[in-house]
Design goal:
By secondary structure, this protein is mainly alpha-helical. It has three helices and no strands. It has helices spanning 2-26, 46-51, 54-67. The chain is elongated.
């Protein structure tokens, strides 16, 4: 009796999943074909301007290197 109920339930569940899968494939979706078409163009370029300005990057790097004393590495020193 229990085996028959399990078999019937499995069959009905399989039919249900098949119908849902077919509906998902056949019904039109709500997304557009080109997801990039919905996005606004990138307009905040302040970060890009600063981080791609080679002269400014060299100035910042040289300032940071002058402020920090040189640390001894593990391979330096006697021995």
């Amino acid at each position: 009796m229990i085996k028959r109920l399990i078999g019937t339930f499995s069959l009905l569940f399989g039919v249900f999943l098949t119908v849902v899968g077919a509906a998902l494939v056949l019904l039109p979706g709500t997304t557009s074909a080109d997801p990039m078409a919905q996005r606004e163009p990138f307009s905040d370029t302040a970060c890009l301007d600063c981080h791609t300005d080679q002269q400014r990057l060299e100035e910042i790097t040289s300032e940071n290197e002058a402020d920090e004393p040189e640390e001894a590495s593990l391979s330096s020193g006697p021995g």
